[in-house]
Amino acid sequence: MQKNWYRLDTAALIFPATIRRDWCNVFRLSAGLTEPVDPAVLQQATDDLRKRFPSYFVTLRRGMFWYYLEESRSPVLVREDYAYPLTFMSGAELKRNCLRVLYYRNRIAVEFFHSLTDGRGGSIFLANLVARYLELKHGIVIPRTELIRDPAEPPRAEELEDSFLKNAAEVQADRTEEVSYRLHGTPEKKGFRTLTTGIVETGALLAAAHRYHVSVTAFLAAVMAESIISMQNEECPRRRQRPVKITIPVDLRRLYGSSTLRNFSLVLNIGVDPRYGDYSLEELCSTIYHQLRAYATPQHMAGMIAANVQPQQLIVLRLAPVLLKNIVMNAVYRRTGESFGCLNISNITNVDLPEEMRPYIERMEFIIGPQRSYPNNCSVLSYGGRTYINMIRNIRESELERRFFSRLVDLGIAVEIESNRR
């Protein structure tokens, strides 16, 4: 019999402890269809996935020693998208469900509390939700693949495992870093988030990255670092500057052959110190690419995993009440959690759907929210020959987006801009 509760995975433990009234770690994945969404069919598709993906249909509960996830007693009710992306998930909402299924015109969106999963796991769920919707709506037959699962089958044991515990090294990696430059601006009122989407041809983006002999993620991180360096240069003299580092999540499933649908990614803070001198874009690309190659290895990431896992296994921490753990985790998070990077660039890369689904889906997107202590973030997803670069902010100033997308245009990459701000 399937158990009806789950321990939080190693990466998920920090998120309940760091929630505050104006911030909750939520991300969104969405698919734009070729026709308006039928909410009744979408509700049926959502209900049909409940047994296949049980770790997503859960509520957040607080025990004496740890938070945990419990099977939800109420269904996830499909609702029309009602506000800006990634509105705050309150404690009351998390006690009902930790994910939202939304629709608006032609769009199906799913928003996840980050304790459930990461971007890769979320993309698998969205793909299966849309596949089931299309089967019900149009009566098509979609073949089962590693991406598209049979909703009638039970979940596999490996999909529900905490892969961090399985792959931790015996010795922790040293995570000491220098504090990074911080982006800043005028906070928006009432928690509003401005979303700016840059749409580019994937082929053009790949060609530009290949000209510099790097991956797309390294190329985008280099252009972003160049933009941030130029902003810092205008703010203060070189001797008073800070390192400029881009936080890049690494999908550990690829390194360790994991099939988990829960969180299994860790971040690397990659960049340069402008105090040492000027960097050309070519030098930034090379530096960032080789740092990623050097650190995103099974051996180094296993040491980073151990740095997260081993403190949780200390008897004194295990026996501490959850309220005390919250105080400690909050203090650690404020001091180190977001001090070492300027912003995230989270790239899910290409989502390759079965051929039977493609005529019905025009676009797919991935949106992460601003972090708790810095105002900008960036997420990337490619589908159907186009790449969607979503830059989100909770400040009024749009300078970073302007510089970043203008630089892509300068490099020969045409950018189509969309925004939720009129």
List the helices and strands and how they pair.
Elements: E1 5-7, H1 14-17, E2 26-33, H2 39-48, E3 58-62, E4 67-71, E5 79-80, H3 91-94, E6 99-104, E7 107-113, H4 119-138, H5 163-167, E8 194-201, H6 202-211, H7 216-235, E9 244-251, H8 253-256, E10 265-272, H9 281-295, H10 298-312, H11 315-318, H12 322-337, E11 343-350, E12 361-368, E13 376-383, E14 386-393, H13 399-410, E15 416-419
Helix pairs in contact: 2-4, 6-7, 7-9, 7-13
- What's the β-strand tally? 15
Radius of gyration: 21 Å
Q: What is the number of domains?
A: 2
CATH superfamily of the largest domain, by name, is Nonribosomal peptide synthetase, condensation domain
Average residue-wise pLDDT:
93
CATH architecture of the largest domain: 2-Layer Sandwich
Low-confidence stretches: none
Cα distance spanning the termini: 52 Å
* Shape summary: globular
Widest sheet: strand ordering? 10-9-11-13-14-8-15
Q: Would you kindly provide a written description of the structure presented here, covering whatever features stand out?
A:
This protein is an alpha+beta fold. The protein folds into 2 domains: 5-149 and 158-163, Chloramphenicol acetyltransferase-like domain (Chloramphenicol Acetyltransferase), CATH 3.30.559; 167-419, Nonribosomal peptide synthetase, condensation domain (Chloramphenicol Acetyltransferase, 2-Layer Sandwich), CATH 3.30.559.30. The chain is 33% helix and 23% strand. It has 13 helices and 15 strands. A 7-stranded mixed beta sheet has the order 10-9-11-13-14-8-15, sandwiched between helices. Helix 7 (216-235) packs across helix 13 (399-410). 41% of the residues are buried. The model has no long low-confidence stretch (mean pLDDT 93).
